[in-house]
Amino acid sequence: MTEQRLLERAQGKAAAPLSVAYTPISTLADLRAAAQLAIQVEFTTVPAYLTALYSITDKSSAAYQALRSVVVEEMFHLNQAANILVGIGGQPKLTGSVVPVYPAYLPSASTTATPYVGLYRASQAVFRNVFMAIETPAPFTAPPQGSDYQTIGQLYKALSDGIERCVEQYGADKVFAENGSAEQRTDIYLGKFGGKAVKVTDADSAQLAIQQIVQQGEGAVNPTHPLVPQQPYGAYEHYGARTDGTYGPILGTPYELSHYYKFLRVADAPDFPDTLPIVSNPRVSDFTNPTALQAVKTFNVGYSVMLKNLEASFTKAGGGAADVYFTLALPLMHNQLPTLANLLMQLPVFPNGDPSVGPNAAPTFEYVEDASFDSFLAALKVLDKLLADHGLPPLLVAPVAPPAPPGPAPRHREALHGVIDGVRTLKSRSDAIGLGL
């Protein structure tokens, strides 16, 4: 029994009640499976948040900035969960059958108590009914739950409990033994957002990694309760519009707002920014506009290439001097894919449609098994020809990344040519690394 459990028993604290359906984690294989499940849960939220994010036209709005901060932190959570898996001898999987297909419930979640996660145009209703439901805090007494969980916090309680149990049963040396081919990442860039990547080497570091994920997502305390007298260094972590017009930490709240409370503020705001008129839960079979159809297929190829590189970044072959995370995955994630999504959301689903009215297309985030930089470039060239043949008007909203120069919004092909040039550069880097991606 751990020191913490002995202390709780000595103080007369009752252990959290166990669910009747809960099977405690007691083998190393099950522990690694639980960590992989945590990765997949974090993964599933990202495309849903990105779809709403890309649909917002006012990039300076509080809704956009709050959602963007959550997306960055979800990628941080994915990184933390991957570090836990590597630390206990596993290898993170981000491709193939683990890629979420939308709409869907969170992996292994209760289908009666958790939201049906889809790819929706941003709205206050989506923030309240879907995003807040994803990040709903677990009650303090909520039991651990490895499957059929009602909150993400219960899933992490099960993982935390499993780490303790396996350390007791097998010893820390056997639990925290990396497999030799996997690699943890502690250099993930979060910019102005919260969190610090933890290298998982023992039970304490694993629990710290879990704690950061849960506190950022659900929140450790109610942010309306002032803790400044007890927690003076936590006074600067409320995010919002500052007096100089920028968005960032300001005085007023003890901790950085959890994802749940960030979403609550957006849902309760008196107004909401305009959005592009995209379809919800798009399907490739719905697109009869050939240009939109090619654009969504092209996006899916690029998305799949990014996932392959992100997965490789947690291997020793993809780390070190090669470092496919910074040289390949991150540029795709921050530059090429957002620009493609922006272009896609301004293409009507049907031929001769009006992009200012819609319905417009949107990414479907489907995995393409044989995707490569070569096939990505080939798809981009086909899309470029279709855009040239149709002579489309300027984009309604300029791409977010890379930053658009001042002046009129670029035409579709101008934005696409920036993507093509970037992908050519990335392909050259990939060829030099030699991982066959």
Core attributes:
437 residues, two-stranded antiparallel sheet, disordered N terminus, 12 helices, 3 domains, single chain, mainly alpha, Ferritin, globular
Structure explained in plain terms:
The protein is an all-alpha fold and 437 residues long. It folds into 3 domains: 16-220 and 258-268, Up-down Bundle (Ferritin); 225-257, no CATH class; 284-433, no CATH class. The protein contains 12 helices and 2 strands, in the order H-H-H-H-H-H-H-E-E-H-H-H-H-H. It has helices at residues 3-10, 28-55, 62-87, 124-134, 152-170, 172-175, 203-217, 259-268, 290-312, 324-344, 373-390, 412-433, and strands at residues 238-241, 247-250. It has a two-stranded antiparallel sheet. A hairpin with a 5-residue loop joins strand 1 (238-241) and strand 2. Helix 9 runs antiparallel to helix 11, helix 10 (324-344) runs antiparallel to helix 12 (412-433) and helix 11 (373-390) runs antiparallel to helix 12 (412-433). The protein is globular, with a radius of gyration of 22 Å. It starts with a helix and ends with a helix. The relative contact order is 0.12.
| Whole-number mean pLDDT | 83
C-alpha Rg (nearest Å)? 22 Å
Side by side, the strands of the main sheet go 1-2
Q: Please identify the structural class as seen in this structure.
A: mainly alpha
Order of helices and strands: HHHHHHHEEHHHHH
Could you say how many structural domains there are in total?
Answer: 3
Number of discrete helical segments? 12
Query: Which blocks of ≥5 consecutive residues have pLDDT under 50?
Result: 1-20, 219-237, 405-409
Helix content: 40-55%
CATH fold assignment of the largest domain: Ferritin
Number of strands: 2
Shape: globular
Oligomer: single chain
CATH classification, class level of the largest domain:
Mainly Alpha
**Share of residues in strands:** under 5%
The CATH superfamily label of the largest domain reads Ferritin, core subunit, four-helix bundle
Question: Alpha-carbon distance between the termini?
Answer: 46 Å
CATH architecture of the largest domain: Up-down Bundle
Protein name: Iminophenyl-pyruvate dimer synthase domain-containing protein
Pfam family, one: Ferritin-like
Organism: Azospirillum doebereinerae
InterPro entries: Ferritin-like, VioB/RebD_dom
